[in-house]
């Protein structure tokens, strides 16, 4: 197809043309040119021959992007509304306004390392809307193990997010083997490196993984939350939705796994983990809890 180039948005005929991808790389291939694809709103990366690709009309692409933006806006709006309704009440104070000035509410802070620069920008914008302090950095997945400790030493964070793109390869490997995945080994190695630096799962909460990632290996490496138990695709915002629940749950309470996963778009097929302590602290001018 002569109109294919890096950046072109396409769908795949073999999968019903239901997911939109962006072409990230093109190479000759053995029998025909092949491409590396990344999902527009799913954290999926895949290879495909050009004969499997379809270039959708521009109007269809616009409608798809518009639909994704509207859905994300509604999800974020619901989160903000729910968080405001759950806001901790301030103690009675004759001064009223003075008490509010003294009040201190500190949601959990985030270090977010992402293999997709566009998704990173979306996630960082969402953190800002949710009033969650976050530092975000873009690196290729293979760089994750080498950069994670450098950032953890420089930026104090309650929650570490390591995400990007992944997929279960169709090369005949077994699902339990780390070699059967495009990027899962980098998520595992990054989590292991972070846990050597900060061993406690309460001191540093870790979410790691992407579409179809080796859930068991990532969780065994020390993550609190990981994808993907049923090797399904996860949404670009799923890590942020887990973070929101953790960041606004009081530090003396535990986030039940079912509650955290109910906060996500993908659900239990895409996200799993362990019971984890919240990261929200509050207080006044004299004490912080």
Give me the secondary-structure topology.
Layout: E1 9-12, E2 21-27, E3 34-39, E4 45-49, E5 53-54, H1 58-85, H2 97-102, E6 104-106, E7 110-114, H3 117-129, E8 134-138, H4 144-154, E9 159-163, H5 184-197, E10 205-208, H6 215-221, E11 225-226, H7 238-247, E12 254-255, H8 257-262, E13 272-273, E14 276-277, E15 281-283
Parallel strand pairs: 7-8, 7-9, 9-10, 10-11
Antiparallel strand pairs: 1-2, 1-5, 2-3, 3-4, 6-15, 11-13, 12-14
Helix pairs in contact: 4-5, 5-6
Detailed description of the structure:
The chain is an alpha/beta fold and 289 residues long. The protein contains eight helices and 15 strands. The chain has helices spanning 58-85, 97-102, 117-129, 144-154, 184-197, 215-221, 238-247, 257-262, and strands at 9-12, 21-27, 34-39, 45-49, 53-54, 104-106, 110-114, 134-138, 159-163, 205-208, 225-226, 254-255, 272-273, 276-277, 281-283. The strands form four sheets. It has a six-stranded mixed beta sheet with strand order 8-7-9-10-11-13, sandwiched between helices. It has a five-stranded antiparallel beta sheet with strand order 4-3-2-1-5, with no helix packed on it. Strands 6-15 form a two-stranded antiparallel ribbon. The termini are far apart.
Model regions low in confidence, pLDDT < 50 over at least 5 residues = none
Order of helices and strands: EEEEEHHEEHEHEHEHEHEHEEE
Terminal Cα span: 61 Å
The main sheet comes to:
6 strands, mixed
> Largest sheet, order of strands side by side?
8-7-9-10-11-13
Average pLDDT, all residues? 88
InterPro entries: Peptidase_U57
Protein name: Sporulation peptidase YabG
Pfam family, one: Peptidase_U57
């Amino acid at each position: 197809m002569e109109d294919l180039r890096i950046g072109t948005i396409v769908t795949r005929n073999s999968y019903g043309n239901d997911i939109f991808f962006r072409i990230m790389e093109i190479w000759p291939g053995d029998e025909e040119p092949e491409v590396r694809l990344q999902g527009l709103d799913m954290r999926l990366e895949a290879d495909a021959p050009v004969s499997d690709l379809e270039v959708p009309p521009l109007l269809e692409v616009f409608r798809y992007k518009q639909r994704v933006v509207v859905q994300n806006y509604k999800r974020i709006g619901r989160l903000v509304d729910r968080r405001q309704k759950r806001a901790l009440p301030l103690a009675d104070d004759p001064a009223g306004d003075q008490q509010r000035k003294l009040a201190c509410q500190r949601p959990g802070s985030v270090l977010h390392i992402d293999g997709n620069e566009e998704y990173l920008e979306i996630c960082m914008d969402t953190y800002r809307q949710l009033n969650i302090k976050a530092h975000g950095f873009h690196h290729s997945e293979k760089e994750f193990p080498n950069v994670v400790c450098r950032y953890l030493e420089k930026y104090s964070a309650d929650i570490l997010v390591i995400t990007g793109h992944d997929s279960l390869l169709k090369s005949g490997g077994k699902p339990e083997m780390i070699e059967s995945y495009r990027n899962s080994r980098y998520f595992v190695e990054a989590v292991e490196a972070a846990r050597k630096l900060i061993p406690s799962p309460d001191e540093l909460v870790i979410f790691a993984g992407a579409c179809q990632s080796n859930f068991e290996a990532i969780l065994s490496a020390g993550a609190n939350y990981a994808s993907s138990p049923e090797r399904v695709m996860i949404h670009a915002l799923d890590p942020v939705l887990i973070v929101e629940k953790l960041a606004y749950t009081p530090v003396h309470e535990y986030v039940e796994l079912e509650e955290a996963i109910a906060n996500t778009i993908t659900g239990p097929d895409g996200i799993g983990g362990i019971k984890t302590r919240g990261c929200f602290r509050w207080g006044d001018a004299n004490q912080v809890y």
